[in-house]
Specification:
Elements: E1 2-6, E2 13-18, H1 25-28, E3 36-42, H2 46-53, E4 61-67, H3 76-88, E5 96-101, H4 103-115, E6 121-126, H5 129-135, E7 140-145, E8 148-155, E9 160-164, H6 173-190, H7 192-206, H8 210-230, H9 245-254, H10 262-279, H11 285-297, H12 310-317, E10 323-324, E11 327-328, E12 330-335, E13 338-342, H13 347-357
Parallel strand pairs: 2-9, 3-4, 3-5, 5-6, 6-9
Antiparallel strand pairs: 1-2, 7-8, 10-11, 12-13
Helix pairs in contact: 3-4, 5-6, 5-8, 6-7, 6-8, 6-10, 7-8, 9-10, 9-12, 10-11, 10-13
Length: about 350
């Protein structure tokens, strides 16, 4: 097992990465401050892992919430199900919420924890690759709205993250590849050596080699923990974690969260952001092609879904958390392993990218 830490003073917390952690009460119980626990999971994960987790919590007053599975259920209406259970069971401010599942479960559980009685503890037990390397770390919580993704939420850090890579054995291939998009992102924005390692080891990851997986999760979490510690509330550096996301979120919103998976949309967005970076003269066209090749090897798309027009992109990108004073800022690359946030990308170049990818 590897243990990393997100360094946030008295709110610092561990990220445990390894195999078989789901059954390890020594990692979980010290972070439960009272006798009340609410486990939030979904219809897919509950049959697989809920019965393994509950015995670890023996002696606690345990409640469970099983949510519908899917990004389209990441809404205020679904969030209300968690509040309903907390109130019916009369959970106090000393309750601990446990998110057992992927990014949707983690984001909604975290937001419920941030807002229930103005803030209670929660623990992340991510069971997808995407959530293990990205959404479970850093305290971003929230829900979607038909007009924009993750526009309603709060910063609320977990008290611990347990990433059991053995849970990835049951992850469908498409969702596994979706998670690889975020892994690749970390190399692109801040770790060129890791990016090179991914090119050399992508087949081992696709084959779910345990050692390669643990290393990829560890490196991804280490990169994110470093950024979060330096900029918890996204006033500067942390925004680089959104590389490709302005484009990707526009795709998700346009499809009503029913088309491409999150990581698939981000893969397309990263190619578009890399292409724009190339048109600015920051990276070379062959480097964009090399990224496309890596994404294809990871079984990820590089093309905008058919029927999505450039004008539709701009409509949805205008509702983005990186818009400031009416100006859309984008995360682009200075070089491989070095990202930055800018509004100086040239509207004509952005238009050209959108027209080329939507043509």
């Amino acid at each position: 097992m590897k243990t990393l830490h997100v360094e946030l003073g008295d709110r610092s917390y561990p990220i445990h990465i390894g195999t078989g952690l789901l059954d390890n009460g020594d990692l979980l119980l010290p972070h439960i401050i009272g006798s009340e626990v609410l486990v939030v999971t979904n219809e897919t994960i509950a049959p697989l892992y809920l019965d393994r987790l509950l015995p670890v919590l023996a002696g606690k007053k345990i409640g469970t919430v099983i949510l519908p599975d899917g990004e389209r259920f990441k809404t205020l209406d679904t969030l209300a199900i968690i509040y309903q259970q907390l109130l019916e069971l009369r959970h106090s401010r000393k309750t601990t919420l446990i998110a057992l599942g992927g990014g949707v479960v983690g984001d909604m559980t975290g937001y419920a924890a941030a807002s229930y009685q103005r803030g209670v503890n929660f623990i992340q037990i991510p069971t997808t690759l995407l959530s293990q390397v990205d959404s479970s770390v850093g305290g971003k919580t929230g829900v979607n709205h038909p007009l924009g993704k993750n526009m309603i939420g709060a910063f609320h850090q977990p008290v611990a993250v347990l990433a059991d890579v053995a849970t990835l054995d049951t992850l469908p291939a498409r969702e596994f590849s979706s998670g690889l998009a975020e892994v690749i992102k970390y190399g692109l924005i801040g770790d060129s050596a890791f990016y090179q390692w991914l090119h050399e080891n992508i087949q081992a990851l696709i084959g779910r080699d345990r050692a390669a997986l643990e290393y990829a999760v560890e490196q991804s979490c280490a990169n994110k923990a470093r950024v979060v510690a330096a900029d918890e509330r996204e006033s500067g550096l942390r925004a680089t974690l959104n590389f490709g996301h302005s484009f990707g979120h526009a795709i998700e919103t346009a499809q009503g969260y029913k088309g491409l998976l999150h990581g698939e949309a981000i893969a397309v967005g990263m190619v578009m952001a890399a292409d724009l970076s190339s048109r600015l003269g920051n990276i070379s066209p062959p480097e964009v092609d090399r990224l496309r090749s890596l994404l294809v090897r990871a079984n990820l798309p590089c093309k905008v879904p058919a029927g999505m027009a450039a004008e539709e992109f701009m409509t949805h990108m205008a509702v983005d958390k990186k818009v400031a004073d009416g100006v859309l800022r984008l995360v682009l690359l200075k070089s491989i392993g070095d990202a930055f946030v800018t509004a100086e990308y040239g509207g004509h170049l952005l238009d050209a990218v959108l027209q080329d990818y939507c043509g």
